[in-house]
Amino acid sequence: MDTTNSEEKISFKTKVKNFLDKKNVHPSLKTYFIDAMGKMALGLFASLLIGTIFDTLGTITTLTFFNDIATYAKNAAGASMAVAIGFGLKCPPLVLFSLVAVGLAGNTLGGAGGPLAVFFIAIISAEIGKLVSNTTKIDILVTPLITIIVGCGLSIAIAPYIGIGANYIGEAIMKATDLQPFLMGMVLSVTVGILLTLPISSAAICASFGIVGLAGGAALAGCCCQMVGFAIQSFKANKWSGLVSQGIGTSMLQMPNIIKKPIIWLPTILSSLICGPLATCVFKLEMNGPAISSGMGTCGFVGPIGVIQGWLNDLNSGIKANITALDISGLILISIVLPIVLTLIFHLIFKALKLYNDEDLKLDL
Asked: Which residue, 121, 233, 252, 293, is most buried by CB atoms nearer than 10 A?
């Protein structure tokens, strides 16, 4: 048996693996869809979302100072996302800083689907930049050159098409929700709520596909059910620290407990199953603020603030005549009251059936 070729293949694979390890390049779904996407959401939060909040302050106070800040923050969204992705991928400094240009190009050329274009293009550029980093004596020229050429080149070549594709998907989801608000209300509420609790960024996904309108309202309902629901469901085990950390922080904290005992996830999922169609069919709750807010829930109260921002935008543009009592009551009920009541009911039923106990929801805070 000739083992020469086999040994050469093993040697080649080992060399490639060692090289990738040395460059800190570890391709995997976790690396890209959890680590990178999670950090991308922070980049969106620190630019587009904060800019929207400043815009709201400017509208409410009539101080143009806030609106000016909002413009600068929003314009930095592409660069902020790309640098955040690079940070999540542990890029060397020269690669990280070069991603500013890459993010700007991807987000600009990607149009409405800019965040999705930035996500893919920034990852490719960052990984290639890491591979060439510190391989020559003129690294200060080579690394930025390669990273920016790859990133901007890809942006010019494919970002518009990624943007168009993302826009089509987002529009299809929103049209389906308009046509089938009950069914899509359930599907979106449950799906986006689950994504919020998983170590995947629901905010980045909603931003990438531009999920707004009734679809955004359903997504918001699901996120609020997860965050507020787990906060109240686990109150006996985690007290006030758990209420705050989950209610206005993230329900992702419960993932270790969910892995141990998946049944604890059912009360919040059932709540979102009910709240989704209530949001779309009864209260006609629309998220006409930034799409990222659709996937934020009550994290820093960003979701409800996004709805309010949408109301203000619609008032200014003449689409909406006034903010009604149904609007306000619907937002409060969907964001806070119903997730508390429904999750608590299911929680008590499941406990009575001895499917789990309060200690199964204990957080290590």
From this structure: 293
